[in-house]
Every structure is written in structure tokens, then in C-alpha cells.
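Q: What structure does this chain adopt?
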Amino acid sequence: MKQGNLLTGAIYNTYTKRIVDILCASILLVFFAPIMITVALAIKLDSKGPIFADTPSRVGNGGQRFKMFKFRSMVENAHRMLREDPQFKQLYEEYKRSSYKLQHDPRITRVGKFIRKHSLDEIPQLMNVLKGEMSIVGPRAYYPDEIQEQLRKYPQAKQFVREALMVRPGITGYWQVYGRSEVHFGQRIKMDALYVQNVSLWYDIRIMLLTPKAMITGKGAV
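A:
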């Protein structure tokens, strides 16, 4: 990437992007309000547990940890069960081998399967955007143990991880619209780094315009 483009991207990422995030998140929260209410009711009627997922903290800009808002798509205490319950030991090993994604996860509820396919479980992250922890567009928000485990598997990705953590993670992003869960960690983090290297208003607009198609088709989602 040329030095001029780097400077333009840095200026956009420091100033304009935050303004765009606040405006877009505020508008989208109003737009998605009826859907969020419907999803929340469906979750409560479908299975026992809270509306929001109780997941471990994620790694954000500069390595800062934050709690991500996300609709619960799995059974209650799903993340603890996977890591601590002996009956899920084999599943957990598969989870780590497959870049922290599972094609057939028995913990996912009936409603959860639908909202994950169409990314409706991600909508509450708009609140993270308003708090300044996330952006509308950005790299994936990784789990701390996910980064550590995957770097052991893909040590050549260390530089890409450093670049990805230079900006706020996004609700949607380059890999989400072009690859989703069909790409492994090594490819995914490279795509995240490529986004950071080329960040601009027009690049973000392009990704935002492609996001509804990815949500509707559900291609590559697990």
C-alpha cells in the first residue's frame, strides 16, 4: 500500500470512521428494533436461558478486552460446557482444529440455527459500536484463546494479527462478506489485515452494501 493511501486511511480511521459508526449504528438500531424484539421473544420461547449470549471477552483495538453483545443462539452456558464438560472434549478438539468454527454444533438451538445463518444474532453489536468498542466494518473480534491457539497452528500469521488489532473489530467486514466460515484462520486473519491496509470510506461502503446479501443468503454461515 502506498504511503499516501496509508495516511488517508489513518485519517479516515481516526476521525471520519467514528462519526460514520455512530450515525449508522443509531439509524440501524431504530430500523432493526422490530426484528430485535421478535428475535428476543423467539429465543425466550424456544429454550431456557438469557436473551443475550454469555460469551468470553473478545480482543479489540490495541488488544483491549471487551464484552460483546450478541443474541444467544446456543443452549445456556454453551461456551463453558464446550471447554469444561468432559463429554464435549472431542468436540472442543474439533472446534480448535477447524479454526474455532463447527459445521455441526449440537449446542445450537432451533432459533439459534436460523439467526446464525442470517447473522441476526450479530445485531446487538450495534450497542458495542455506540460504546466505541466496535465499528460497523472491521476485522473479526477474536477470542483471546482463539488467537493464541491459532497462532500455534499458523505462526506465519503473527504480523497479520498485529495489523488486525490496530483498528476496532467490526460487525461486518471483508472476510464476513467474501468468506464467512468457509475460510480457515490463516486466510481469515490475512483478509482482516488486508482490510486494515486498505481502509477507506469507499471500502467500508462497499462492504456495507454487500452485507445484506450475505445475511439473506446465509452462505458460509455456521
